[in-house]
């Protein structure tokens, strides 16, 4: 078992002293690259995890927090990081950022972090983990916090995706729309990254309104504006196009808007569009949306980390509220469109 493996085992199999093995796993500059690679190969094979006791004897708390994100360029992650960093800095904690953008990055992080143990806490931002990955983190003995996701039984802060989706779809229903399409989005490089609550909300809202589900009005695409634009083009090609579109995110919704405007259709007169997030571009493009306070999610996650490191109780999990933001991209359907007749 990984818990029975110690540094001496790694050193012996790598053919080096325990001190050299320790320096290699800490990426010490005075260790030869070939030696470092040999030590790391053995550590990975043995699933070596540095013991919390050894870490404390080596110098106490590190004062560092690992923050793991799948993306850096997307608005949501930047907003969460801004709130998180401010709280950690106030508490005197440094942030170490790890991007796990693909399967290789992800495997490297969850394999190597337990052997390094250079941090006191790990914050997973918008990242679902499986049981094996969670187990590796737990064996390190560090504080674990999830922001924008849930990693039971650890503290987490997020929105309720089902509630957010209901706010968006119910808005379209209340406007009188009966042919409502959904552009669902997922991240192809991240397991478990599909916001299932936003999908279940769509079907629940239609059922509560007594509206039938037309599978031709449901599209599932990758997370992005280009994918949203392509999906909207497909929806416009249906024999009976939708009068309204609910997108899983503002980025996807912005792509849908682009296709509609290039097709010469008016928003919202011909087609209404709503997203989720309240991305900064949503206000600039007059996009109706369901806003989520990403910065607040980061701030609360930071408080959870600080409380956990101080041994203080913190209510968890935390669900932060979302709000409907009505702008110019949604409105009642035209009478002829409400009856399902296609514009000529």
TrEMBL record:
This is LacI family transcriptional regulator. SMART domains: HTH_LACI (SM00354). It holds the Pfam family LacI. Keywords: DNA-binding, Transcription, Transcription regulation. One of its GO terms (molecular function) is transcription cis-regulatory region binding. Residues 5-59 form the HTH lacI-type domain. Gene3D superfamilies: 3.40.50.2300, lambda repressor-like DNA-binding domains. It comes from Pseudonocardia endophytica.
């Amino acid at each position: 078992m990984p818990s029975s493996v110690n540094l001496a085992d790694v050193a012996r199999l790598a053919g080096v002293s325990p001190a050299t093995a320790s320096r290699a796993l800490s990426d010490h500059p005075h260790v030869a690259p070939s030696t470092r690679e040999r030590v790391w190969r053995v550590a990975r094979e043995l699933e070596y995890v540095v013991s919390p006791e050894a870490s404390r004897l080596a110098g106490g708390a590190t004062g560092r927090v690992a923050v793991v994100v799948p993306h850096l360029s997307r608005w949501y992650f930047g907003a969460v990081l801004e709130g998180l960093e401010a709280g950690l800095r106030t508490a005197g904690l440094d942030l170490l950022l790890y991007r796990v953008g693909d399967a290789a990055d992800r495997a490297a992080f969850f394999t190597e972090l337990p052997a390094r143990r250079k941090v006191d806490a790990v914050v997973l931002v918008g990242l679902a983990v499986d049981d094996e990955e969670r187990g590796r983190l737990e064996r390190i003995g560090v504080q674990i916090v999830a922001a924008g996701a849930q990693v039971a039984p650890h503290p987490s802060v997020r929105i309720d995706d089902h509630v957010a989706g209901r706010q968006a779809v119910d808005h379209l229903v209340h406007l009188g729309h009966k042919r409502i399409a959904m552009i669902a989005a997922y991240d192809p490089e991240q397991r478990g990254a599909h916001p299932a609550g936003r999908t279940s909300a769509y079907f629940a809202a239609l059922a509560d309104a007594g509206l039938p589900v037309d599978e031709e009005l449901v599209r599932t695409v990758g997370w992005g504006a280009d994918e949203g634009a392509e999906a909207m083009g497909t929806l416009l090609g249906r024999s009976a196009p939708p009068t309204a579109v609910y997108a899983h995110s503002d980025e996807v919704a912005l792509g849908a808007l682009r296709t509609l405007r290039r097709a010469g259709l008016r928003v919202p007169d011909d087609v209404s569009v709503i997203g989720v997030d309240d991305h900064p571009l949503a206000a600039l493009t007059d996009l109706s949306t369901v806003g989520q306070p990403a910065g607040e999610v980061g701030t609360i996650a930071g408080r959870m980390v600080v409380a956990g490191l101080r041994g203080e109780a913190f209510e968890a999990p935390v669900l932060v509220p979302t709000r409907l933001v009505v702008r110019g991209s949604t409105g009642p359907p035209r009478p002829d469109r409400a009856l399902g007749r296609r514009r000529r």
